[in-house]
Amino acid sequence: MTKAMEILNSLTLEEKASLTSGKDCWRTVDIEGKLASIMMSDGPHGLRKEESGGTVPATCFPSSATVANSWDEELMYKIGEALGEECLANDVQVILGPGVNIKRTPLCGRNFEYFSEDPLLATKMACGHIRGVQSKGVGACIKHFAANNQETDRFSVNAVIDERTLREIYLSSFEEAVKEAKPWMIMSAYNKLNGDYCSENKPLLTDILRDEWGYEGLVVSDWGAANEPVNGVKAGLDIRMPGPVPSANAAIVEAVKSGKLSTEELDKNVLRIIELVEKGIKGRIADYKADMTAHNDLAMKAAEESAVLLKNGVLPLKKSDKIALIGAFAEEIRYQGGGSSCVNATEVSNLLQSLDDKSIDYTYAKGFKTEDDSVDENLVSEAVAASEKSDKIVICMGLPFRMESEGFDRWTMSLPSNQIGLFNKLSTLGKPIVVLLFQGSPVEMEWSEAADSILAMYTGGQAVAKACVNLLFGDAVPSGKLSETWPLRLENNPTALSFPEKGTATYSEGVYVGYRYYDKKHLDVMYPFGYGLSYTTFEYSDLELSATDISESDTLEVTFKVKNTGSVAGKEIAELYVEPTYPSVSRPVRELKGFKKIYLEPGEEKTVTMTLSKRSFAYYDVETHDWQVDTTVYKIHVGPSSRNLPLVASLKVTSSRSGKTFFTTDSRVYELNANPISKEALNKLLTEDLKLDISALSIDLPLSKLVGFSGGILSVDMLDRFVMELNEKIK
Ligand code: GLC
């Protein structure tokens, strides 16, 4: 018998029930002589441990949306390690992150805290985060499970999502992270999912999470997300936070006594709590000291690796340049988002200090206010004056705290008008102008034509200013790429007509999220998913596939070469997308199925290898409730971004599914085509009996419609007989 089981058996019913809600805001209940308490605190990009009216000093790393732009799982792992170390130093056993919710729209207030619009990129970054934290004997808690994609009405909005979209987009990053990185905890979201609160959603918390994915960790509610306690236990919620909630504990005791809740059901949850506490206690290291200097250096490195060079005509600057440093964000550096992720950063440098550190000759002018959008003419005049006496202008623009945070969604994708107005005025001075963006999510850039260079720093953490200056002067080379599309305008986003919805949020765009939508609609975008420039250039060549005809159970090896064709060393993120040429269901044009970041010296060339398997080609089939592969030809695209894929090769993948084995007159043409027997029978019917050119017919056509196309030859009875004979033949 395990120690956890022994402890379980030693507990009274009341003690067991008391464990299902927190001891206080951050700790689990301890039971004298039987079970200690452990502490959990926020993340995800820095430790936010509350103490004496504030929070402990901690390293504020770049937010998840920012580090996702590095496309570097290893870097995320290193940040996870550092987070784990700071938890050890502060006696915290679980850090509440990463947040992996997919970005439906640029307006979600917490986008700065989430990785991507793409499940694969979100998954890989989440795995790096979780593995890094847990390598230190501290737990990670992936969140918010699931479909917490808006802040508006977040405590009760009902996310209505079809099964395929849910699986392919909104659960996918949780699924792979749970299976690959095994987070100690997963946090159930505030909202409802298809009618039931996530914290009482048995299909979500038990049928999918545990029975299908095999998750063995603990489910904690988001803070205040739990509702009816007995339904929560039955659905698979283990701990409701915060606590204590005596009424909930009493309801559980009463339910067991009345038989409404079985002891076995309660024991399953309580055992997971005991096992979590055991792990947390085991990981403790007394008097642990974290190297905060090293962590600050890591935060700077991460910000350098995550910055995205969106446009370049004049970077890197020369250290001898006389710079006009314009914009309040140079001084009031914007380095993190608002809400529960807000960190009491150990040190924050701003751009003025960082430029001073490099003895750069600059003149600073605030240029605009951040507390509102109003224009302060004095600030504008100072900015113009500073610019007129300088060689180059560096303007720091972005989203103030008041425009993006947990707790509310953005109401616009625009930058404040006073910033744009100032930019327009400075751009008439005929001087090179560099735009630095400090924001946690995309902004509209229609004003930026006159910018010579644009560098997006996102919410780059406490050392973002140092990183920014290193990048500006070439002491670091930009290598980040966008983990989310920047649409030309908000109205081009598929949710623009309805977001944010209160009460019920209907995800009518389905799987067409982010680039999946813009590519399908052939919409121009400001900056595509996966896009980012460097100070050097790269060339792709020699794409090879290990096979051109495989079955879905095979793996495929893809190799290609990348060469640094520029004059400075740099890193390139190579991206691989898969395009089904003849899908049986409506699918995105192409989807990210592999990526790798590589370092190349000038002139150096490396061979990159990626491996694809069934899930690289599959879609989620709602009839079989499983991942299926179409038998068709797939194109493998490789290149620097979702919209720049110079290499392409094709292969045929044969599904192991022989197609349906039972047809009706409502069966679609493509379903008969997926099975060799029914395909032959249909071809005979159409070409010999009806002399119909099927190629002209839509593959989605129900068989019943053939009567109308047959010129009176085919009757409903004849079709019924055809289907009956076919089913006999196939059986
Ligand atoms: C918040 C957030 C969640 C956080 C928790 C504890 O409301 O939704 O991400 O971890 O409560 O602060």
Give structural notes.
- The protein is of the alpha/beta class.
- Helices cover 31% and strands 20% of the residues.
- The two termini are 50 Å apart.
- Bound molecules: alpha-D-glucopyranose.
- Strand-pairing-aware structural class: alpha/beta
Distance between the termini: 50 Å
User: What is the makeup of the main sheet?
Assistant: 6 strands, mixed
- The helix count comes to 22
> Which of globular, elongated, flat, extended, rod-shaped describes the shape?
globular
Uncertain spans, ≥5 residues at pLDDT below 50?
Answer: none
Oligomer: single chain
Proportion of residues in helical segments: 25-40%
Total number of beta strands? 31
Small molecules bound in the structure, each named once: alpha-D-glucopyranose
C-alpha Rg (nearest Å): 28 Å
Question: What is the average per-residue confidence, as pLDDT, rounded to a whole number?
Answer: 96
Strand order of the largest sheet: 12-18-17-16-13-15
Strand content: 15-25%
List its salient traits:
731 residues, alpha/beta, five-stranded parallel β-sheet, globular, binds alpha-D-glucopyranose
SSE diagram, text form:
Blueprint: H1 3-10, H2 13-19, E1 40-42, E2 50-51, E3 54-55, E4 57-58, H3 64-67, H4 73-89, E5 94-96, H5 119-134, E6 139-145, E7 158-160, H6 163-170, H7 172-181, E8 185-188, E9 192-193, E10 196-197, H8 202-212, E11 218-221, H9 229-235, H10 246-258, H11 263-283, H12 292-306, E12 308-311, E13 322-326, E14 344-345, H13 351-357, E15 361-365, H14 377-388, E16 392-398, H15 417-426, E17 433-438, E18 453-456, H16 464-472, E19 486-487, E20 504-506, H17 515-520, E21 525-527, E22 538-545, E23 549-551, E24 556-564, E25 570-580, E26 591-600, E27 605-612, H18 614-617, E28 619-621, E29 626-628, E30 632-639, E31 647-654, H19 669-673, H20 676-689, H21 706-709, H22 716-730
Helix pairs in contact: 1-11, 2-10, 4-5, 4-12, 5-7, 12-16, 13-16
The protein binds alpha-D-glucopyranose.
Alpha-D-glucopyranose is lined by residues 42, 96, 143, 222-223, 340.
